[in-house]
TrEMBL record:
Species the sequence originates in: Aquimarina addita
InterPro entries registered for this protein in UniProt: DUF547
Ranges for domain DUF547: 69-173
Protein name (database record): DUF547 domain-containing protein
Length: 246
């Protein structure tokens, strides 16, 4: 099955990069298509098998840091993809693990080399991505855990960025395993408390932000408090993983 997917990509079914874009994310897009399932579960063993795509992408990232000539969307897409790709690397470098939190200070580790500078995942998230002022990035970057927003199985590009961020926000907010929003009760992910100030955009409060995407609006429901956060690895089940190599 994986061979068929790879052939489809080679024949042109991978994402199309606009000739106007500054950076080609095809290597990452290919690795995602091969190893991230529709439900967002990740085949880490598959990423290890397909590491040539990853390491080609890391080299491309390292040699092509965004500058002022890049559009805002191009820069955001680059850094979202970089964060997610290097999170995969962090896991597979120590695989198998039960949780990313089994690693020592995973988000502070400066293992990402971009244009000669060593960065951590926290550097990318807090010093770069959050400064764009778009709270939807919290649904795009993935921390390799079950309660995190699922990783998209397509690469972000300047062309698809806005639509894909909206899709990720709607998917996360309406996922009952990550948020409970019913007519009588609410219980939101801890992401909304950790980054509460980020969700106050254009004079809107957190409830207003959530209601942009929630199928059931938050009005006067009982607040059950934040949902428990499951830090277990967001790994595909072994039976499905085996199928991927048939």
């Amino acid at each position: 099955m994986k061979t068929i997917i790879t052939l489809c990509i080679i024949l042109g079914f991978s994402l199309t990069i606009s000739s106007q874009e500054k950076f080609d994310h095809t290597s990452w897009d290919t690795a995602l298509l091969l190893n991230v399932y529709e439900d967002g579960s990740v085949n880490y063993a598959g990423f290890m098998q397909d590491s040539s795509y990853l390491y080609k992408y890391f080299k491309e990232l390292s040699q092509n840091r965004p500058d002022a000539s890049w559009s805002r969307n191009e820069q955001m897409a680059y850094w979202i993809n970089a964060y997610n790709a290097y999170t995969i690397k962090l896991v597979i470098d120590s695989y198998p693990i039960e949780s990313i939190k089994d690693l020592k200070k995973p988000w502070d580790k400066k293992f990402i080399k971009i244009d000669g500078e060593w960065l951590s995942l926290n550097d990318i998230e807090h010093n770069i991505l959050r400064k764009f002022g778009d709270a939807r990035i919290h649904f795009a970057i993935n921390c390799a855990s079950i309660s995190c927003p699922v990783i998209s199985n397509r690469a972000y590009t300047a062309e698809n960025l806005y639509e894909l961020l909206d899709i990720q926000a709607e998917r996360f907010i309406n996922d009952p395993t990550r948020n409970t929003i019913t007519a009588s009760h609410i219980s939101l992910s801890k992401i909304f408390s950790w980054y509460r100030k980020d969700f106050k955009e254009n004079g809107e409060d957190l409830v207003g932000f959530v209601n942009r995407y929630s199928r059931i609006p938050i009005t006067n429901q009982d607040d059950l408090g934040p949902k428990d956060y499951n830090w277990s690895l967001n790994e595909v089940e072994q039976s499905v993983k085996g199928f991927a190599y048939d």
